[in-house]
Amino acid sequence: MSDGQTTAEHGFEDVLGYLKESRGFDFTGYKRTSLMRRVRHRMNQIGIDDYGDYIDQLQVNADEFSALFNTILINVTAFFRDPEAWAYLQEEVIPALLAERGPDDPVRVWSAGCASGEEAYSLAIALTEAMGIERFRQQVKIYATDVDEEALTHARQATYTDRDLQALPPDLVSRYFEQHNDRYVFRKDLRRSVIFGRNDLVQDAPISRIDLLTCRNTLMYFNQETQARILGRFHFALAPNGVLFLGKAEMLLSHSRIFDPIDLKRRIFRKTASGTVAPTTPPALAVVHDRRVDLDE
Ligand SMILES: C[S@@+](CC[C@H](N)C(=O)[O-])C[C@H]1O[C@@H](n2cnc3c(N)ncnc32)[C@H](O)[C@@H]1O
């Protein structure tokens, strides 16, 4: 083909174009190789080999879009995923963050790519442990967003199994969850401070004045240019001195110094005072992906 693309690649681009047109969902900023592998995996599952035939299937079968979406968007998550990094956040970062703020100042947190809510509720537990229940309820707002509505529904229900809570010490389970038969529901009084909503990191405006932003195991799905754009928005979203907490496999490579490492090993960064970036300007910044610890690929 004259533009260097094979027929298969053209067919794949047609699928992406169709998803954008029909569903408004733009997958073009995702890493091409893994995205293609996931789409092919879904096509194999239903015995379709040709991209054109797959578009036909998406057209006639409304459920196919959600099946494809579930194959592409990986919702793997856990409470306090990567315990060592969370311990550092709890012991060092959160106390410092609270000390910098007045006793009545609001504390605004954003869990971006929150999947089924475990990360957002881990933040609620960590902050409650640091501030006490009353201050948490009065001062903290945790915005938890994802592009996947099914995952958000699960997150809002806040209902987890024994297995989901495995990593939590029993005293935290008894203090933060109510048991209903074989299910555990996160405390309702604290849940009021956790607000779930749909936000597409590729297309939607960021939340503002954020003190602590966790975006873990999500940026790694995007290509470098899209990551840079999202990181520019995160810089805009953060309040002065705001903290960014990335996933274990995600390493920030900065040339423009809009984030400084607080602890590189735990992937915790602070917004630098200088270097203001407009929300639409991609900074010279990217996340490199450490393949040794990437379990999702
Ligand atoms: C592997 S999970 C990470 C969950 C959690 N942050 C953690 O580290 O355990 C990745 C999440 O990113 C979400 N995601 C993928 N593309 C997204 C986008 N464009 N905007 C917002 N969230 C997205 C997926 O739906 C999925 O829930």
Task: Walk me through this protein's architecture.
- With 297 residues, the protein is α/β, with parallel strands linked by helices.
- It folds into two domains: 7-72, Chemotaxis Receptor Methyltransferase Cher, domain 1, CATH 1.10.155.10; 83-293, 3-Layer(aba) Sandwich (Rossmann fold), CATH 3.40.50.150.
- It is built from eleven helices and twelve strands.
- It has helices spanning 7-23, 32-45, 51-60, 62-72, 83-99, 118-131, 133-139, 149-157, 170-176, 188-191, 224-237; strands at 107-112, 140-146, 159-161, 177-180, 183-186, 194-198, 210-215, 238-246, 250-254, 259-263, 268-271, 285-289.
- The protein has a seven-stranded mixed β-sheet. A three-stranded antiparallel β-sheet has the order 3-5-4. Strands 9-12 form a two-stranded antiparallel sheet.
- Strand 4 (177-180) and strand 5 (183-186) form a beta hairpin.
- Helix 2 packs across helix 4 (62-72) and helix 5 (83-99) crosses helix 6.
- The chain is globular.
- It starts with 6 loop residues before the first helix and ends in an 8-residue tail after the last strand.
- The model is unreliable at 279-286 and 288-297 (pLDDT under 50).
- The protein binds S-adenosylmethionine.
